[in-house]
Write a structure and sequence with these properties.
121 residues, mainly alpha, 52% helix, elongated
Length: 121
């Protein structure tokens, strides 16, 4: 019996970021600012000014760039491209999750009892 040479490919769907769930197996302390900048500079073609921007819009810009790079790397991997790098893919995913978590924390604002918390009377 002859095997079919065609591979099954999934229909293309728009990229939706995974839900942010704490995973105790992958838990690691958040990177300090210098580590974050050097890791992002190694993975993404961004200007230093863009990497140093810690505002909401700056974080969103970096997350969009990471999502775009992840999509490209995933496409290379699924297609069996010679330039696919599993270590780069893992690093992009790790940075993406760290940036998403930082953005969620930034959007929440100061937590009760935190250093910037002011009790309303």
């Amino acid at each position: 019996m002859k095997k079919s040479s065609r591979r099954y490919t999934q229909p293309s769907r728009p990229f939706t970021p995974p839900a942010l769930k704490p995973n105790p197996l992958n838990a690691r302390p958040p990177p300090c600012d210098r580590q974050r900048r050097s890791e992002l500079a190694r993975l993404l073609p961004l200007w230093p000014k863009e990497l140093e921007d810690l505002s909401l819009e700056g974080r969103r810009h970096i997350i969009r760039a990471l999502a775009r790079a992840l999509r490209c790397e995933r496409t290379r991997g699924r297609g069996g491209h010679w330039a696919y790098d599993l270590a780069r893919h893992a690093a992009l995913l790790r940075c993406y999750r760290d940036e998403r978590a930082a953005l969620v924390n930034l959007e929440k604002g100061p937590l009760e009892g935190g250093p910037n918390f002011k009790k309303r009377v």
